[in-house]
Amino acid sequence: QSDWTLVIHGGAGVIERERMTPEREAAARAGLNAALDAGQKVLSGGGTALDAVEAAVKVLEDDPNFNAGRGAVYTYDGTNELDAAIMDGRTRAAGAVAGVTRTRHPVSLARKVMEDSPHVFLGGKGADQFSAERGLEQVDPAWFGTPERKRQLDELKAKDVSWFDVDMKYG
Amino acid sequence: TVGAVARDQAGHVAAATSTGGITGKRWGRIGDAPIIGAGTYADDRACAVSATGSGEFFIREGVAHEICARVRFAGETLKQAGDTVMAETKALGGSGGVILTGPRGEIAWSFNTPGMYRGHVSAGGKRVVAIYGDE
Average pLDDT of A142-151? Predict the structure, then answer.
């Protein structure tokens, strides 16, 4: 048994070799490796599991290849609404946010809810307000959008396919 | 949806999940990722779980907590519990996957889609990064 471990995911779906370009595949693997690097640095240095999962997820949130943070999918109205959660197995303390729009790293906002509020789950404008009041990094909502995600939304609307079809297709 | 689970040198576990949700979502729809016990759960007595997939089904099944409960009360391995709960979720119509680690440093994942972006690393262990189901 190892004295520290880290496991990550970047989404699941109909991800098949024949649909994947070499460039997309290389970018995805690089992103996953970068997230493992971030978490490994914490854990190998004696840091906590909580710090490690936050560090790894922040890397994935900044990577436009994955559906979180920058690169998140669009709502029907063309906005990005982000959800995140974090939980500490030592105490079963937990924090979560839903429908947030301005925090660069939603996972860090979830952690702030856990550690700096009496609550577990904040949503929408109130969560955005809490984030700003607690000094977390704020970004223009346009930060989260990418042309590829916009194209996927346009495909969903134009072809009258379901969200399930689109999200399974793009993982 | 992205996520991570970890076990540190002190034997504690944690889980985190982050997502943009589903393309074209309306009416303030929220999936399983931020729902404690559905898409995210961590308990030193059992395991840490992060999930990705069709959130409504993961919420109904209570996937993350259900896996930890099977490990804690039924003594199943992470892999057994993950596969069992994912099979039950698939039976309801859900698809996706979970990543798992435990307080003794176990590592597992389970998914019922053709692929899942995933990876793991551990002290003294081989790093694995994979995308397709047959990797």
Answer: 96
CA distance B99 to B79: 10
Question: Is B40 assigned a catalytic role?
Answer: no
Nearest to B6 among A49, A60, A71 (CB): A49
Q: Looking at chain A, which residue has its C-alpha nearest residue B131?
A: A15
What are A83's two structure tokens?
């959800």
A44-83 pLDDT per residue, tens: 999 999 999 999 999 999 999 999 999 999 999 999 999 9
Interface test with chain B among A1, A3, A4, A9, by most B beta carbons within 10 Å: A9
Structure tokens at A50: 């909580």
Q: Which of B16, B97, B103 sits opposite A57 (nearest CB)?
A: B16
| H/E segment holding residue B110 | strand B107-111
pLDDT, residue A1, reads 53
Give the residue from chain B lying closest to A154, CA to CA. B24
Instruction: Indicate the burial class of B60 (C-beta count within 10 angstroms; 0-12, 13-18, 19 or more).
Output: middle
Which parts of chain B sit beneath pLDDT 70? Answer: none
A84-106 pLDDT, tens digit each: 999 999 999 999 999 999 999 99
B60/A contact by beta carbon, under 8 A: no
Distance CA B68, CA A34 (A): 28
